[in-house]
Specification:
Length: about 240
């Protein structure tokens, strides 16, 4: 992969180019994230970026220690607590936090583990999760507004994350872990990205963009041209995720 911190900064710049010209009306419109406006979605991204640039990130404890807590519930509570900010203030606050994040993560000493949701992550893996989340919420913002948000080679990070965390997704669903090989076509329509052992009994092939959207719960497997072959391949497509529960 290319440098994940550079790609994270590029993802922020692409989203910033979308947000900058939005009108007040567009900020107040419903996003594709249920119950959230465009402003709410950006506020959520802001709040999560601020965690990365806070002392908490080095606390060594997961963000969600309680078994009954969910990330969706925590995110909803945090957004509700600060809802009502002006679009200009939300955008300025997001920019301040987001554009600091690549440097914050890049500066971490080797071996650093950072607190995140239910586990700790390396700075590179946390950067990957931030690409995945910003890309997913960019879909929530741009699709309802009818705005373009082209897929890029940065989706390789998102696809890697989805494949890498399949054991976690299987465990959440109560399914025995099984090796899965993915052969995905990059957004350029030519490059092939592969993840896992080609000899694995389960294989997923098709569009990386569709695979990432399934992992982000923006598409169902049935809405895509992805092909699942072998034991547990269909299960993998059903449970795959690019995010923490």
């Amino acid at each position: 992969m290319t440098d994940v911190f550079d790609d994270l900064a590029a993802e922020y710049r692409q989203l910033d180019a979308v947000l900058d010209p939005l009108t007040a009306d567009q900020w107040s419109r419903p996003s594709a994230a249920a119950g959230w406006t465009v402003s709410d979605a950006v506020l959520h991204l802001t709040q999560s970026e601020e965690v990365i640039n806070s002392p908490f990130i080095n606390a060594g404890e997961p963000r969600l220690a309680a078994a009954e807590a969910t990330m969706d519930g925590l995110a909803a509570e945090m957004v509700a607590a600060e809802r009502g900010m002006s679009p200009a203030d939300v955008l300025a606050r997001w920019r301040k936090a987001a554009f600091a994040t690549p440097g914050t993560l890049r500066a971490c000493p080797p071996g650093t583990r950072l607190s995140w949701v239910r586990t700790s992550l390396s700075p590179k893996t946390l950067a990957t999760t931030r690409i995945a989340e910003h890309w997913a919420h960019a879909q929530d913002i741009t699709v309802p507004l009818g705005l373009p948000y082209p897929d890029t080679a940065r989706l390789r990070h998102v696809a890697w994350l989805a494949h890498r965390t399949l054991p976690y997704a299987f465990a959440l669903a109560g399914i025995a872990d099984a090796p899965v090989f993915c052969e995905l076509t990059a957004p350029d329509g030519i490059t092939r990205w592969t993840f896992g052992d080609p000899a694995a009994p389960a294989r997923i092939t098709g569009s990386a963009a569709e695979f990432c959207r399934v992992g982000a719960r923006r598409l169902t497997p049935e809405q895509t041209g992805l092909i699942a072959e072998g034991a547990h391949a269909a299960d993998a497509l059903r449970v795959v995720r690019n995010y923490a529960a």
